[in-house]
C-alpha cells in the first residue's frame, strides 16, 4: 500500500515507517520537523516537509503519490504543557487532524490509523483497562486526542471513513540495531531519564512515593516501540473503509517506577542515584491495559516482551547516540524540488540517494 505517515520523523513514527517499508509498503513521510529529526527518516521513504494543517498541499501530495492510507502520528505529547497551553493542543492535535481528514475525504482516501493515548481514560475505572471503558480525560492533551477519536467516529458514519484508533500506553526501547531511537527535546519520559542519569552519574527523581501501589510509586505498562510499530502495520492491513476499530496497545503487566529503575540498574550494571520527590500533577497511580482484543482480532504478538530487553535496546541507542540525532547537513542528499509560498514557509524535499 502507498501510505502517508505524518510525524514519520518522530520517535514512534520513524519506527513505524521502518516496519512499513520492511513489510513491503511504500511510504511518504510528512513532518514539519518541529519535534522530529530529519536523520530519523528512513532513506527509502519520500519526505514532504510540511504541517498537516494545509489541506491544499496534502490533497496535492495524496494525488501526486497515489496515497491509499494514512498513519497519523504528528502531535504534541506533553501533558503538563497541555495544561498551561491548551490551545496549542487543540490546534495541533485536533484542528490539524481535522484538516488532514478533510484532505483525505476530498481525495476519497478511506483508511486512517490514528495514534491515540491511554490519556483518554483519565483515572481509569479499573485495571486492566478495556477499550470499551469510559473515556474521561483529565487534561487537554487527552481531550485533544479524544476529540479526534470522536471526529473519526463521525467521519465513519458520514463519509464512510475507515479507521483504527490505537491507544498507546508507555512506549519505550529503540530499534534493536540502535540506528533509530528516542530523542525528545526536552526529555520527560522515565526510561530515557533513568538512562541519562546512569550515563552521567546524576540522580533521577521519583515523582511521588505515596501512591496506592505496592511500593508507593506509579505503575505503568511498557511496550517496546518495535512491537508498537508492528501493531500499526497489522492495523493498516486489516482496515476496511466504512469500519471503525479501537485497540489498546499495552502489555497487561505493570511496572512501578522503582521496578523500572532496578531493571535499568541490572541492564547497565550501574548503581542509579534516586531522589524522592513530590507527585507530578496529572499522574494516575496505575495505567495498565488489556491488549486481549488486538491479540485476538489481529494476532498481535510482542517480540520483545520483557522489560530488560526494552531497556537494553534503549541503552544501546543512548550510548551510541549520546547527543541524540546529530544533524547531517553536510551529508544530506536532499534535493529541493519545490518551494511553497512564503505564507506557509515550507519546502518540499525528496531524498535521492547517491546523486
Ligand atoms: N517519572 C518519574 N520521574 C521522571 C519521569 C517520570 O518518577 O523523571 C514517573 C512519572 O511520574 C510516571 C512514570 O514515571 O509515573 C512514567 O512517566 P512518563 O513520563 O515516562 O510517562 P507517562 O506515563 O506520564 O506518559 C505516557 C506517555 C504520554 C501519555 C501518557 C498517557 O508518555 O504521552 O502515557 O497516560 F500521555
What is the secondary structure topology, with strand pairs?
Blueprint: E1 2-6, H1 11-22, E2 26-31, E3 46-49, H2 55-65, E4 69-72, H3 79-84, H4 86-107, E5 111-117, H5 140-159, E6 162-168, E7 170-172, H6 190-200, E8 203-207, E9 219-220, E10 222-224, H7 225-237, E11 244-249, E12 255-256, H8 257-268, E13 273-277, E14 286-287, H9 292-298, H10 307-320, E15 334-339, E16 347-351
Parallel strand pairs: 1-2, 1-4, 2-3, 4-5, 5-6, 6-11, 7-10, 8-13, 9-14
Antiparallel strand pairs: 9-12, 15-16
Bound molecules: uridine-5'-diphosphate-4-deoxy-4-fluoro-alpha-D-galactose (UFG).
Uridine-5'-diphosphate-4-deoxy-4-fluoro-alpha-D-galactose (UFG) binds next to α6 and β8.
Amino acid at each position: 500500500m502507498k501510505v502517508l505517515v505524518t510525524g514519520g520523523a518522530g520517535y514512534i513514527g520513524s519506527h513505524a515507517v521502518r516496519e512499513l517499508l520492511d513489510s513491503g509498503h511504500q511510504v511518504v513521510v510528512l513532518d514539519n520537523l518541529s519535534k522530529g529529526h530529519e536523520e530519523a527518516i528512513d532513506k527509502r521513504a519520500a519526505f514532504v516537509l510540511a504541517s498537516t494543517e494545509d489541506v491544499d498541499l496534502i490533497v496535492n501530495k495524496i494525488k501526486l503519490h497515489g496515497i491509499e492510507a494514512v498513519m497519523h502520528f504528528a502531535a504534541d505529547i506533553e501533558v503538563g504543557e497541555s495544561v498551561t497551553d491548551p490551545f496549542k493542543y487543540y490546534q495541533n492535535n485536533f484542528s490539524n487532524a481535522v484538516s488532514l481528514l478533510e484532505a483525505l475525504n476530498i481525495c476519497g482516501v478511506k483508511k486512517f490509523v490514528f495514534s491515540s493515548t491511554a490519556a483518554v481514560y483519565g483515572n481509569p475505572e479499573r485495571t486492566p483497562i478495556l477499550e470499551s471503558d469510559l473515556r474521561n480525560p483529565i487534561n487537554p492533551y487527552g481531550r485533544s486526542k479524544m476529540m479526534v477519536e470522536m471526529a473519526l467516529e463521525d467521519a465513519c458514519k458520514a463519509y464512510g471513513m475507515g479507521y483504527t484508533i490505537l491507544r498507546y500506553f508507555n512506549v519505550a526501547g529503540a530499534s534493536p540495531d540502535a540506528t533509530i531511537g528516542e530523542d525528545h527535546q526536552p526529555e520527560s519520559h522515565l526510561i530515557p531519564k533513568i538512562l541519562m542519569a546512569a550515563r552521567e552519574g546524576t540522580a533521577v527523581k521519583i515523582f511521588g512515593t505515596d501512591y496506592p501501589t505496592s511500593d508507593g510509586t506509579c505503575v505503568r505498562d511498557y511496550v517496546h516501540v518495535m512491537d508498537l510499530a508492528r501493531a500499526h502495520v497489522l492495523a493498516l492491513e486489516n482496515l476496511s473503509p466504512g469500519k471503525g476499530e479501537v485497540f489498546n496497545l499495552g502489555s497487561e503487566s505493570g511496572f512501578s517506577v522503582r521496578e523500572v529503575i532496578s531493571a535499568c540498574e541490572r541492564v547497565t550494571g550501574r548503581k542509579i542515584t534516586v531522589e524522592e520527590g513530590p507527585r507530578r500533577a496529572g499522574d494516575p497511580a496505575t495505567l495498565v491495559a488489556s491488549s486481549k482484543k488486538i491479540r485476538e482480532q489481529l494476532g498481535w504478538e510482542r517480540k520483545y516482551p520483557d522489560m530488560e530487553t526494552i531497556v537494553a535496546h534503549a541503552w544501546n541507542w543512548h550510548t551510541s547516540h549520546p547527543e541524540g540525532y546529530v544533524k547531517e547537513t553536510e551529508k544530506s542528499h536532499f534535493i529541493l524540488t519545490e518551494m511553497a509560498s512564503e505564507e506557509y514557509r515550507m519546502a518540499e524535499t525528496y531524498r535521492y540517494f547517491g546523486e
